Amino acid sequence: MAVPTSLVAAGGLIGGYGIARWTKQRPLGGVALAAAGALAAKQWKDTVGAPAAAGLSGLYVAAFAGSHPLAKKVGAWPSVFGVAGAVALASWAVERGRSR
Predict the structure, then answer these.
(1) Which regions span the lipid bilayer (predicted)?
(2) pLDDT digits (tens, 9 = 90+) for 40-76
(3) CB 10: neighbour CB atoms within 10 A?
């Protein structure tokens, strides 16, 4: 059974930050973030098509970038969880809408 794409994407954002923070190796976190993003993009392309996959992939990158200024206002972990939740919800909604 495949892991739902919404969890892959959210896990990439959360896991990437966690790995970078706990290992103190930002590139290592970046590898996890990029790997999960690539897997999510492939799954999105397979399930909802290339245009929707491009939009969701753009949201994934924007969430990563947006988590940095948001963290200055609400804290690092709340920011990461917030953007991960937003990406997961968007992924779920797009995939659910296309499967009907």
Answers:
(1) 76-94
(2) 999 999 999 999 999 999 999 999 999 999 999 999 9
(3) 26
Q: pTM score, two decimals?
A: 0.93
- Write down the pLDDT at residue 97: 84
DSSP-derived 3-state class of residue 63? helix
Task: Provide the residue ranges of all domains of the chain, joining segments of one domain with +.
Answer: 5-98
52 vs 91: CA distance, rounded Å: 10
Cβ neighbours for 68, distance < 8 A, ≥ 6 positions apart: 79
Q: CA quadruple 40, 42, 48, 53: dihedral positive or negative?
A: positive
C-alpha–C-alpha distance, residues 95 and 4, integer Å:
10
